[in-house]
Amino acid sequence: xxxxxxxxxxxxxxxxxxxxxxxxxxxxxxxxxxxxxxxxxxxxxxxxxxxxxxxxxxxxxxxxxxxxxxxxxxxxxxxxxxxxxxxxxxxxxxxxxxxxxxxxxxxxxxxxxxxxxxxxxxxxxxxxxxxxxxxx
Length: 136
Ligand SMILES: [Zn+2]
Ligand SMILES: [Zn+2]
Ligand SMILES: [Zn+2]
Known about the structure:
The chain is 37% helix and 18% strand.
């Protein structure tokens, strides 16, 4: 297989992992899903390419890790994912909360380029497990 075709295939594999997931993914998640078939530098390079193309956005988790999730209304060089993210403090899962949300009016002269808003808490699975544990 020539390099270009292999690149396309690698990109498709990463895109499939992203589209099959209901939550945002960090590098370790990709590594697990791709069972180490693609090296780390390539995974990051492809993810960065998707970000530049407006297909994927990055989320900084409160554990210091970077997560990636699919964009739904973005195009190349123009991200407009002004939505909130939720991170579970127990299993670390990050979810896009794709709901309309109004951005506060900034003081005069300030222009927004990006927004990061993260809510921490428990996902339903973790919440149920904690509730079960407390019953015992
Ligand atoms: Zn986006
Ligand atoms: Zn959880
Ligand atoms: Zn998101």
